[in-house]
Amino acid sequence: MTKFRSIVTGGNTGIGAAIAQKLISRGHEVVCLSRRRPEWNDHKLSFVEVDLTDAAATKQAAQNVLAGGPITHIIHNAGIIRAKPLEDVQLDDLAALTQLHLGAAIELAQTALPGMKQARFGRIVLISSRAAMGLQTRTVYSATKAGMIGMARTWALELAPHGITVNVVSPGPIGDTEMFESVMSPESERAKALARSIPVGRLGRSADVARAVDFFCDEAADFVTGQTLLVCGGASVSALSM
Ligand code: NDP
After folding, report:
1. What's this model's pTM, rounded to 2 decimal places?
2. Where are the domains of the chain?
3. Does ligand 1 come within 6 angstroms of the Cβ of 192?
4. Side by side, which strands form the sheet with 228-231?
């Protein structure tokens, strides 16, 4: 019987697919929560269609997953940007991204918690962003992604006595994703200039993020909680050159 059963939101594409595939390679059963069905298959992958900006639908989806068995890991990866300069920001955007990035995570965690507490084991990983530290046109995105960090630190304190760790992975620019392509073509001169501005000299890959998530998900990583790991090729370190 599979020991670990993981929810990966947005496990159908990009970073989420890389995370789901990494966890499956570790023997997990993975349930992908997203609007579109994954275009990849595995006998350990299942899919629940849900729009995570809809609180009631998210609650129902979480209950459906739980009905299939206890949830040991939650990786909340689904996310969108809604780039706008401050003058154009709509409070509707803030409400939608608050629900997607924060509300959905709360709902999923609340559903899984009784089982995790009973098992005295759980792993929760929230995918934030380097943009939580600030980026032009990202008012609602950076606000809600920064909120994930505070929320994870709070959960880490509340859940540590129960054997549940809560950590955050904050990616920098990850070139092989729809999200990156929605901002610029990975083949463009702009993307090449961006890659040159990153200390390691390249854009990130989904697999780079999955590797970090894999670390936090490990059963042995029980002394690491409340942490944020930036997977950004050094982009979050001061870029001043002397
Ligand atoms: P993608 O656009 O490829 O993936 C986004 C995922 O989120 C998709 O699986 C999508 O599935 C899911 N999603 C979006 N909205 C909803 C919704 N309303 N309900 C359910 N699922 C939803 O981009 P990435 O793989 O890059 O993004 C993964 C995470 O990484 C995001 O949280 C993003 O903010 C973060 N990130 C990405 C960076 C990058 O450069 N790519 C940099 C920093 C952070 P579907 O559309 O089928 O619902």
Report:
1. 0.98
2. 5-173+206-230
3. no
4. 45-49, 29-34, 5-9, 73-76, 122-127, 164-171, 228-231
